[in-house]
Design a protein that fits this description.
The complex is a heterodimer of chains A (157) and B (124). Chain A is α/β, with parallel strands linked by helices. Chain A is 24% helix and 13% strand. Chain A contains 3 helices and 5 strands; from the N terminus they run αββαββαβ. Chain B has 5 helices and 3 strands. A 3-stranded parallel β-sheet of chain B has the order 1-2-3, sandwiched between helices. The chains are: A alpha/beta (157), B mainly alpha (124). Chains A and B meet through helix 1, strand 1, helix 2, helix 3 and strand 5 of A and helix 1, strand 1, helix 2, helix 3 and helix 4 of B.
């Protein structure tokens, strides 16, 4: 039988309670979920990639703004050591395990996908949901539109 | 990331999230989610397992096309394999760590107070 998925919200609440934080984090929750059907076949669609990793190591320069990189000349490395992923169980040594540019390029080559936008985007992960909703997400949308994205793949660490 | 997916989707750009935090993503409510039951950090598959990464990415792309409504979660067939102790270890609160956790909490609160004083505090 499969093990149950890790209860991250419960785990996080207990972890921060043990650190003496009285108010538990309130995760975003919505009753309504938007849905946009794919406007054209995948083979004609241009995809944007959005990652929570960053172009530089934020443990040294903690500037949290949307950043973009080139998909035709991508960086060899992306950073995420400041983020809450499972550092005991895995690592970020293989870019393809968390940033699917090369994998999507293969699908473009195979004719399954129309293309990839000229830029990929790094979304800052913010404690403040208000900032994500009012600043970062609109900025990512603006850049996706500017690049002619028909759809987007989001890969949080 | 779920909030960003919702924002793009509401503006007419279909999205798919690849990831492993099932409860967090479903609690928020997103249009399409490809769930792989792995430790957080490798949404496209195990490091250096090219065939798994290709399969997960292809499945994610398929979901853009096949989902016919919001809150569509599809689970990939892959297992992390071997030692499953990562499930219990992540953010585990062990009795022997309580004093250390309390100290870290104190340090964090003190840093927040300093940042606030410097006008650098984030959060609502």
């Amino acid at each position: 039988m499969d093990a149950a998925p890790v209860p991250y919200m419960e785990r996080t609440r207990a972890y921060y309670a043990a650190q003496g934080f009285e108010a538990a984090y309130v995760w975003a929750h919505f009753d309504d979920v938007p849905f946009a059907p794919l406007p054209k076949p995948l083979a004609k669609s241009k995809l944007a990639i959005i990652t929570t990793a960053s172009l530089y190591d934020r443990t040294f320069a903690d500037v949290r703004e949307v950043a973009s990189g080139s998909t035709s000349d991508p960086p060899e490395e992306l950073f995420g050591n400041d983020l809450e992923w499972d550092k005991n169980a895995t690592h970020l040594d293989d870019l393809n395990a968390f940033f699917p540019l090369r994998l999507l390029e293969a699908l473009v080559e195979a004719g399954r996908l129309g293309g990839i936008t000229a830029r990929f985007h790094c979304a800052p992960t913010e404690y403040s949901q208000r900032r994500t909703r009012t600043v970062d997400a609109p900025e990512i949308l603006r850049r996706c539109r500017e690049d002619g994205a028909d759809a987007a793949v989001l890969v949080p660490l | 990331m779920s909030l960003t997916a919702r924002h793009l989707e509401a503006a007419g750009i279909p999205t798919v999230i690849l990831g492993s935090a099932l409860d967090v993503v479903e609690h928020c409510g997103v249009p399409r989610f490809l769930f792989t039951d792995f430790p957080l950090g490798n949404p496209c598959g195990k490091p250096f397992d090219a065939s798994m990464q290709e399969a997960i990415t292809a499945q994610g792309i398929d979901l853009l096309e096949s989902a016919d409504g919001p809150r569509t979660t599809v689970r990939t067939p892959f297992r992390w394999g071997g030692d499953e102790s990562w499930r219990d270890r992540y953010m585990e609160v062990r009795a022997e760590d309580l004093a250390d956790l309390a100290r870290r909490g104190e340090a964090r609160r003190a840093r927040r107070v300093r940042e606030k004083a410097q006008g650098k505090a984030r959060g609502d």
